[in-house]
Amino acid sequence: MSEPILQMNGINRTYGQGKNSLTILDDAELSIDRGELVALVAPSGAGKSTLLHLAGLLERPDAGSLTIGGVECSKLNDDKRTRMRRLDIGFVYQFHHLLPELDARENIALPQLIAGSNKQQADASADKLLSHLGIAKRATHRPSQLSGGEQQRVAIARAVVNKPKVLLADEPTGNLDPSTSDLVFDALTDLVRSTGLAALIATHNHALAAQMDRTVTIEDGKIVPLS
Ligand code: ADP
Q1: CB-ligand 1 contact for 70 (6 Å cutoff)
Q2: pLDDT for 126-170, tens place per residue?
Q3: Is 9 left (phi over 0), alpha (psi -120 to 50) or beta?
Q4: Residue-range domain boundaries for the chain
Q5: Do the Cβ atoms of 25 and 13 come closer than 8 Å?
Q6: How far is the CA of 20 from the centre of ligand 1 (A)?
């Protein structure tokens, strides 16, 4: 049975005011189920980052409802949104943004420590993910000692270590060669399916998009299936 995790209804987002205003999302609707991977493919400037920022609680919509795991987020205060962002949402970017002075295990364990786990628990969670992603032998390597694909797998592990409900990714394999990109994407897909995350992944790569459950685009401010 389908179980919506991320739900956006009647979302409006307009930048600026008056005659210079720019409406990016206009009564936009999107629902992503548990374990579902949705590709977001749209030309530059269409509003992909805006949509990811809204879903990631980094921006507020001007109107509409946004729920994560049934919790209405648009009415929450900033502290509660920050907490939700930390615990319920994982982000993966095109560039890994790992901390250079920490090794792979420490980078992955950090969000767990921030969330209140002790070091032993955090290291155990990190090691489990390192194994799951096939990079257990790289645990004590710093980002500069890892390949691009390994760095990105560490970034994915860091994004999911707190067991978020939603995973948001912006061109997660955009910086990798095609075969590494396939490898990293397979790891990402596997994690989403096995953990029941709801994933929204912006990409320009149509071959990757075709491997997801469905593809949406942004047209005239609406989120519509890409045919
Ligand atoms: P994409 O990620 O698809 O390239 P964006 O969501 O970054 O698109 O941007 C959509 C449109 O909104 C662009 O025309 C951009 O210039 C505009 N825009 C984005 N952020 C702002 C902002 N803070 N203020 C004004 N305009 C913005």
Answers
A1: no
A2: 999 999 999 999 999 999 999 999 999 999 999 999 999 999 999
A3: beta
A4: 6-225
A5: yes
A6: 13
Residue 45 near ligand 1, beta carbon < 6 Å? yes
Distance CA 78, CA 131 (A): 36
Q: For domain 6-225, give the fold.
A: Rossmann fold (3.40.50)
pTM (2 decimals)? 0.94
Asked if 189 and 37 count as a contact pair (C-beta separation under 8 A), the reply is: yes
Joined together, the tokens standing for residue 139 give: 């645990």
Q: Contact, 213 vs 37, CB < 8 A?
A: yes
63-68 and 214-219 as β-strands: parallel, antiparallel, unpaired? Answer: unpaired
Collapse the DSSP code of 130 into the 3-class scheme (helix H, G, I; strand E, B; otherwise coil) and give the result: helix
pLDDT in tens, 104-131: 999 999 999 999 999 999 999 999 999 9
212 touches ligand 1 (CB under 6 Å): no
